[in-house]
């Protein structure tokens, strides 16, 4: 929205964990040193903990970006079974097991590790949000760590999570795993001087050095209102830059930061927002919604999908006007909120099993997938995260589950500000492409690309996939991964509930 006004190459305070934006404070440098120690020593576990928003995921991405010759596996959503964990690891390592049993999965991993060791190649497994791991999965991880030679481990395992992870590892039943931890570090929030340098660093990386200035008082207010948490710093600074854009100034002053912090805390009622800012935001949201809903991704001349019969599912009652998110996010238990979010989405689909596909994504991509999703949410007053079911989008509002089986209408910008960018999309695999049947997936993708007009006369499948990915604003690598599969599914003639309204 404001990038061209300030001369940025991109938004400097996005919440996505982009490694190039990592500011290596003294604390982050020490945490990185612990990660490097674990990799070089090829010992036991490395555990990195920290409060929500301290930059653990960004640090992990930065660490991964430096592992040029290592084989890596990353688990971003640990609410899985032991078998699902192993399949996820093998998938990242591009290993095809001979069967589906737990033993066959472990055997495939062991064989890969031995082969990698013979090639003197490190294998690193990173598990993010590890505080959510079940005891069963933690025990499986411990067994994985037992894969070793006489002198060293065959895989380095890094557990990253919130403060609750320390408490989890202190349990008596997990003492065998805790004894294998060779390095621990707790990532604390930034100090005042570090907060100020963090803001300047991100402005420099985005190409805004010398083009916009946060006054000394504004920087002090950023630290005071964020508590030194990088995620909150990003939210507050992004809102402050928006205020500067609306007011036509490239100087960010303390009152702009204070107002931005109030909005982030959910105190942005009519008494706090100026009419001009409200009008600008409403206009921008309307324009953005019109652009995002301008049509599907099919090129001109593509064959239109057959219109399936309308759904007979009754819509849940919806609150008539937007409500504040705080009551929804501060009164629900994390695990219970996820179960309720899944139940809310299942109610839209009706009977039958659904596939849960976790992705770290952004709102525009979720809108294009047009599928109900469980969104992981955070709040400055919570120590952990929770979940809301995103059920429908209506203009500038989102219809979400209220955690009790009902629904609420919330303002879309407010929802987006407190979303961690982790979403679990729920969909019904009526075509059998979510498993390990590569031939069926290929057939589905080829038929979909042909129907949408992307498959050229030469029949070059990879080139057709890349063209579709380019139009869908996905990485054009020519490979049908999860995101590409979901994008193709979203344009198919499947009877399903849609975020854009109703079912079709």
CA-based shape: globular
* Structural category: alpha/beta
Strands side by side in the biggest sheet: 8-13-9-10-11-12
Beta-strand residue percentage: 5-15%
Q: Based on DSSP secondary structure assignment, what is the total number of beta strands?
A: 13
Structural write-up:
By secondary structure, the chain is an alpha/beta fold. The chain is built from 20 helices and 13 strands. It has helices spanning 3-6, 26-41, 56-65, 82-92, 102-118, 135-145, 164-169, 175-178, 192-205, 216-226, 230-247, 254-264, 275-292, 326-330, 334-349, 363-369, 412-417, 438-452, 461-471, 482-490, and strands spanning 45-50, 71-75, 123-127, 156-161, 181-187, 213-214, 251-252, 355-360, 373-377, 386-394, 397-401, 407-411, 419-427. The strands form 3 sheets. The protein has a 6-stranded antiparallel beta sheet with strand order 8-13-9-10-11-12. The protein has a 5-stranded parallel beta sheet with strand order 2-3-4-1-5, with helices on both faces.
Helices and strands in order:
Layout lengths: L2 H4 L19 H16 L3 E6 L5 H10 L5 E5 L6 H11 L9 H17 L4 E5 L7 H11 L10 E6 L2 H6 L5 H4 L2 E7 L4 H14 L7 E2 L1 H11 L3 H18 L3 E2 L1 H11 L10 H18 L33 H5 L3 H16 L5 E6 L2 H7 L3 E5 L8 E9 L2 E5 L5 E5 H6 L1 E9 L10 H15 L8 H11 L10 H9 L14
Parallel strand pairs: 1-4, 1-5, 2-3, 3-4, 6-7
Antiparallel strand pairs: 8-13, 9-10, 9-13, 10-11, 11-12
Helix pairs in contact: 4-5, 9-10, 10-11, 10-12, 11-12
